[in-house]
UniProtKB/TrEMBL annotation:
<dbReference type="InterPro" id="IPR004839">
    <property type="entry name" value="Aminotransferase_I/II_large"/>
</dbReference>
<keyword id="KW-0808">Transferase</keyword>
<dbReference type="InterPro" id="IPR015424">
    <property type="entry name" value="PyrdxlP-dep_Trfase"/>
</dbReference>
<keyword id="KW-0032">Aminotransferase</keyword>
<protein>
    <submittedName>
        <fullName>Aminotransferase class I/II-fold pyridoxal phosphate-dependent enzyme</fullName>
    </submittedName>
</protein>
<dbReference type="InterPro" id="IPR015422">
    <property type="entry name" value="PyrdxlP-dep_Trfase_small"/>
</dbReference>
<feature type="domain" description="Aminotransferase class I/classII large">
    <location>
        <begin position="51"/>
        <end position="363"/>
    </location>
</feature>
<dbReference type="Pfam" id="PF00155">
    <property type="entry name" value="Aminotran_1_2"/>
</dbReference>
<dbReference type="GO" id="GO:0008483">
    <property type="term" value="F:transaminase activity"/>
</dbReference>
<dbReference type="InterPro" id="IPR015421">
    <property type="entry name" value="PyrdxlP-dep_Trfase_major"/>
</dbReference>
């Protein structure tokens, strides 16, 4: 398999761990081991007794039961776990699709959502989101993009990097469109539960009629990216079998400690997600003030969910040059749109972390020095 460089991940690998502030991060505020264990009395002793042999390939029964509890009527047998959502993407694209299949991908997107598909020899069409319409992708355009060879539509909602969330009417129309054409929807839901208004939350894709697929992990809403625990939930038992056989060749099983910690997080998801939503809502308010102050330099579409926004740079140099100088001069990492294979005018801001107020204050000082 020949696959192109993953621009976002290469960019983050080079810069993330030398920055004083990662203002372009996509994850929620993390927890220490001590903080996580404190949510579950007795778990410290359970951890000390944990055996460090192979874990069950599909994921432990208790972990899959906790994941199934995120959905309506999904059984643990309709869940398979992976080493992060990234492996889940690789597994789905490698087993559900064949060369020459046509796949439509909401764009901009996390690169693996379309690049792995291309590497399989599939025909990939990007379904561009419209910034002037609040980053909404056009359903009428989707009708023009789909054809007899279309096997899957890949979506991400809440969306990285724009913060867009499908409204219920568009979501329902998309499902109806796919059902009429026997198209599978692969729904990247790693930001689900981080809708800024609870009323905006949509059903998980696995919970709607049809053999659709929900992708999840503990990296974003829970802030536990270091555990590397993700999953796929689907009622398509044939697909689940193919995913399991793929994992036999990729990672065989997850880390036993990672599964242990992820199980605690999922059992106490209410507390963790509520804390992260409090941080997010506070930080979005700060961004409202920041982008009002700097309206001559930036325009933005206020996000409705998730942890990221994708403002446009109105003036000055390109986004990549600005982000590079900002990192070198002030130790702040923002992510230019070019690493999303978008344009050089947009920048990803992340607002899921506790230290965003300090980072934003330092950014404000940098901009005042440069732009007055």
């Amino acid at each position: 398999m020949s696959i192109r460089e993953f621009k976002l991940e290469r960019f983050m690998a080079e810069h993330e761990f030398r920055a004083s502030y990662v203002l372009g991060a996509s994850d929620g505020e993390t927890l220490s081991v001590q903080e996580l264990l404190s949510l579950d009395p007795g778990s410290e002793n359970d951890l000390l007794r944990l055996r460090l042999g192979y874990a069950e390939p599909a994921g432990s029964a208790s972990l899959r039961e906790a994941i199934a509890g995120l959905y309506s009527g999904v059984s643990p047998d309709e869940v398979i776990t992976f080493n992060g959502a990234s492996e889940g993407i690789m597994a789905f694209m490698s087993t559900a699709l064949q060369p020459d299949d046509h796949v439509i991908v909401q764009f901009p997107a996390y690169q693996s959502l379309y690049e792995v598909t291309r590497s399989r020899g599939c025909d990939v069409t990007l379904w561009w989101m419209d910034e002037e319409k609040g980053w909404s992708p056009d359903l009428e355009v989707l009708q023009e993009l789909a054809g007899p060879a279309t096997k899957a539509i890949v979506i991400n909602s809440p969306h990285n990097p724009t913060g867009y969330q499908f409204p219920e009417s568009s979501f329902s129309a998309l499902i109806e469109f796919a059902e009429e054409r026997d198209i599978t929807i692969f729904s990247d839901e790693v930001y689900r539960l981080l809708e800024h208004r609870a009323d905006d939350r949509l059903p998980a894709m696995v919970d709607v009629p049809g053999a659709h697929v929900s992708l999840g992990d503990v990296s974003k809403a829970y802030g536990l990216a270091g555990l590397r625990i993700g999953w796929v939930a689907t009622r398509d038992r044939d697909l689940l079998g193919r995913l399991a056989r793929y994992k036999d060749y990729s990672t065989i099983c997850n880390s036993a400690p990672g599964e242990f910690f992820a199980g605690i997080a999922l059992r106490h998801r209410g507390k963790i997600v509520a804390r992260n939503l409090d941080i997010i809502r506070r930080n979005v308010g700060l961004l409202d003030d920041f982008f009002t102050t700097w309206s001559s330099l930036f325009s933005w579409v206020r996000p409705r969910g998730g942890t990221t926004a994708f403002p446009r740079l109105r003036a000055g140099e390109g986004a990549f040059a600005l982000c590079t100088d900002l990192l070198d001069s002030a130790g702040i990492l923002l992510v230019p749109g070019t690493v999303f294979e978008h344009d050089d005018a947009h920048i990803r801001f992340g607002y899921g972390r506790q230290d965003m107020p300090e980072a934003l204050e330092r950014l404000d000082g940098y901009l005042r020095t440069r732009f007055g």
